[in-house]
Amino acid sequence: MSKRKLLWTGLALFACAGWTQADEVETWRVYEQAFTSGKDYAEGGGDAVVLDVAFTRDGANETLVRPGFWDGGATFRVRFAPPAAGVWIWRTTCADDAALNGLSGSVTAVPYRGTLEIYRRGFVRTEPGKKHFTYADGTPFFYLGDTHWGLYKEEIDAPGPHAGTTGATSHHAYVVNRRAEQGFTVYQTEPIGAAFNAADGTVDASDIPGFQLADRYYQVIADAGLVHANAEFFFAASMCPPLAQNPAALARLARYWVARFGAYPVLWTLGQEVDNDFYYERGAEWRQWNYANNPWVAVAAAIHACDAYRHPLSAHQENTAHTTVTGRGTQGDKSKISGDGRSSFADEAVAARTGHSWWAAQWGPPLTSPVNWEVPRDYRASARPAVNYEGRYCYLWTKDFGARLQGWVAFLTGFCGYGYGAIDMWLYQSTYDIDRVSRDGVDVITVADKAVPWSTAIEFPSARQMGYLKSFLTALPWWELEPDLGDKTLFVPDKDCFGVCAAKKGELYVLYFYSRATATGTLQGLAPGASYAATWFNPRTGEVGTTQPLAGAQLPSKPDGDDWVLTVRRFLLP
C-alpha cells in the first residue's frame, strides 16, 4: 500500500471514530484548538470551568496535559506547543461542562523550519546542578533582557507619539524586533496598564477583549524569537488583602494565565517586587503579608501545578537593600525588613512545591567603589541560577557607563543574566522620578536627559554595547566561568583598582575593570611554567586589541581611565 493511501486510510479511521481532522504545526510553535460549549458564559464568566486537554505523542510514552481557557461566550480554547515531531492525539476532560468533555482529535508536529534559536532548540529551562539556563536540547541560554513594565501601553497598531523618525508602524513590534536585532534574548514585562482586571480575582466578559489584546503582544514577542519574562496578573500593589487570603481565586487566576500564555516561550516572574513583603509599606492592614506568609507563594504553587512545560519560575525581588536569598546581602534598616531580608522562596522545600527555580534579583552595583561581595555571594551559594533582573535604568538613574557596567558585573560575579532598561521603554510614557536630577556617582542625569523618548533611547550606545557583551561572552564557555567573589583566589586588585573576575582557574581569566585608575592587579592560580597571553577588549566599541604575552602574574595596566575587559588565556607551545 502506498504512503499516500496509508495517510488517507488513517484520516478516514479518525473521521469514523469522531476525531477532528489532523492539523499541522511546527515543533515548539503554538497550536490552538477551539471548543464550543452548549452554554454561554457571558454572564458570570467561565474561568471556573476546569477543562484539561491531554496531548499524547502517538507511538511514544509522552503526554502533556494543558489547561484550556474560556475566551468569552461559549468559546473555550487550548494552546499547545509540541516538543517533538510526530502525531499528537488530544482528548479533553471537563467535569464542569458535558459539551466540553470527551472530545478528541490530533495534530501533526513537523520539525521547525526556521532559524530562531528558541524553536530550533526548544523552550528555556533550568537543570539541577547548573547555574545557568539551557534550551530544551541542553545548549546554554544567554539571558539578555530588555525591560518593559508598561508593555500594554506600547501601541501595537500605531507608532505612537514618541516614534520620532523610526518609521515604525507598530511601536511594540518595532521595539521587539529592534531589540532582537541588537542581540537581546528576553523581553521583561509587567501587566501595568493592561486592558483586563485580574485584581478582583475573576476573569469575566469585560476582561476578555483585554486578554485577546494580550495574545497579540505575546505573539509579536514569540515571532521575534524572544523569551517573554512575564509577570503574573497585576502590579504587586493590587494584591489586596481579600484576594491574598483567597487561595482558590489565586489558583483560578494562575490556571487561566498558564492556559492562555503557557504554550509560548516564557519565564514566570510573578508580580513586581513581590519577594519578600513588597517593602512592608502598605500600612497596618498589609503587614499581615511578610516573607513567611507571602501570598505569591500560593500563586507560584498554583502556576507550577498546571504548567506542563515547567517553565522557569521566579519571584521578582525587592532591591538588594531589602531582600536577597538568605538576607546575607541586604544593607537596609533591618527593623524595616521582614525576616532579616530572607526570601520567601529561600527554603528548598518551598522551591520544590512552587517550582521556584531561579532568582530575579534587583541589584545596582556601585560605580565608584568595589562590589559589595555579600550580594553575589548570597546568590552564588544558592543552587538556583540568578539573573540581575532589574537595576539602574539608562537615562533615569544612570547613563551608558552605569548601564553597561551592570551587565559585565552581573555575568562576572556569577549571575547568568542581566535585565537592561532605558528611559521611556522600561515604563513607557512614565512620569516616575523624571522631575528631578539623579546622580549615580559618575554621571548626572538631568530632567532634560529623562525627557528622551523611546525612539532615541532604543539606540543608546549601551544597548548596542550589550550586544558586544553577548558576542564576547558567548564566544567563550561563559557558563563554565567561576567568579572570584572578593576572596582573591583568582584575582588580587591593586590599590585603587575596582574590578571583577571570573575564570576557569589556570586556563582562562576574564576581568572587567571599571575604576578610573589604570592600575589592575595580579592573577592567582596560574599553572607553574605555563605560558599565558593577555588581550584587551573595548566594551564601548566591541574592538579587540593586540594579544601580548603575559610576563608572570602581574596584569598590564589599562589602556586609559575608561572601563576595559581583559582576557588572559593559557596557551600550549607546539
Description:
By secondary structure, the chain is an alpha+beta fold. It folds into 3 domains: 18-113, Immunoglobulins (Immunoglobulin-like), CATH 2.60.40; 120-480, TIM Barrel, CATH 3.20.20.80; 482-571, Golgi alpha-mannosidase II (Immunoglobulin-like), CATH 2.60.40.1180. It has 12 helices and 27 strands. It has helices at 3-16, 117-121, 171-181, 208-223, 241-244, 247-261, 295-306, 348-354, 374-381, 400-412, 454-457, 461-474, and strands spanning 23-26, 31-36, 52-57, 63-67, 69-70, 75-80, 86-93, 104-110, 133-134, 140-141, 143-148, 186-189, 227-230, 266-268, 359-362, 386-390, 417-420, 438-439, 444-445, 482-484, 491-493, 499-504, 508-513, 521-523, 531-537, 544-549, 564-571. α10 (400-412) runs parallel beside α12 (461-474). Mean pLDDT is 93; it is low at 1-21.
